[in-house]
Amino acid sequence: MIRVEVRTHLREFTLTIAATFDRGVTVLAGPSGAGKTTLLRTIAGLTRPGEGIVQLDDAILDDRAHHVRPYHRNIAYVFQDYALFPHLDVLANVGYGLAARGIARAHRDAVARTWLERLGIDRLAHARPRALSGGERQRVALARALAWEPRALLLDEPFSALDPATRAAVRRTVRETLGALDVPVVLVTHDEADIVEFGARVLRIERGLLSPETRAAPSTS
Ligand SMILES: Nc1ncnc2c1ncn2[C@@H]1O[C@H](COP(=O)(O)OP(=O)(O)OP(=O)(O)O)[C@@H](O)[C@H]1O
């Protein structure tokens, strides 16, 4: 569970959030400039809140006395542009977080391959990111985030870089993958189709303020 109770002054308004994100997917929806990315960055530890508290399960990540650095939060963040390492092949990209933890090559390659297989892109293991389509890059970014076994997953507009035809197929794959996870997932979007696909729990944000909107879980058939 992620708990966020923060107030942070931004250029035109104050981001004022009191929310908890339980296991499973919560969609964070709102127009451009509403504060969605700033909230994700606050959870990830990339932006420090002006005041308040950020907590993951029993651990305080941010408050007046604490600031746990992003790397030590064990929270995976998939950026809008995916931010893959261009000089590494797909396998090395996906294994990167494990390498940083000192896990031996054979083991991290095996874990990375498992995720590539789950996401249907194992044939791309030795390709470089520049040789991939947008949908393939998106899946590599997700595989990289999940191979790390994060305690929470943050997705910022995960499908916005894809063309509409690819978007629907990748969205379905990602929904199936996320459905099997046992950690909180926060998915930021301003695309109503994402809300239909993932929107069992939706929080709307506008000018830094949340308004809850509860939807019935969509049919998975
Ligand atoms: N470090 C900062 N200091 C002051 N203001 C900021 C800072 N970062 C972002 N802002 C402002 O906060 C507001 C919210 O930005 P944010 O990127 O969180 O919105 P968003 O909902 O993610 O938008 P988009 O959908 O366009 O990505 C914007 O007006 C932005 O200019």
Structure write-up:
This protein has 221 residues and is an alpha/beta fold. It is built from eight helices and ten strands. It has a six-stranded mixed beta sheet, with helices on both faces. A four-stranded antiparallel beta sheet has the order 2-1-4-5, with helices on one face. The longest helix has 16 residues. The radius of gyration is 17 Å and the shape is globular. It starts with a strand and ends in a 7-residue tail after the last strand. The protein binds adenosine-5'-triphosphate. It comes from Vulcanimicrobium alpinum.
Set out the fold topology:
Layout: E1 2-9, E2 14-21, E3 24-29, H1 36-44, E4 51-56, E5 59-62, H2 70-73, E6 75-78, H3 90-94, H4 96-100, H5 105-118, H6 134-147, E7 152-156, H7 164-179, E8 184-189, H8 192-198, E9 201-206, E10 209-214
Helix pairs in contact: 5-6, 6-7
Count the DSSP helices: 8
Oligomeric nature of the chains: single chain
Major sheet: order of its strands?
Answer: 6-7-8-3-9-10
Indicate the percent of residues in helices: 25-40%
List the ions, cofactors and other small molecules found in this model. adenosine-5'-triphosphate
Biggest sheet: strands, sense, closure? 6 strands, mixed
| Backbone structural class | alpha/beta
Radius of gyration: 17 Å
Order of helices and strands: EEEHEEHEHHHHEHEHEE
Measure the end-to-end span.
Answer: 28 Å
Overall pLDDT confidence: 91
Beta-strand content bin: 25-35%
Outline the low-pLDDT stretches.
Answer: 216-221
Overall 3D form: globular
The beta-strand count equals 10
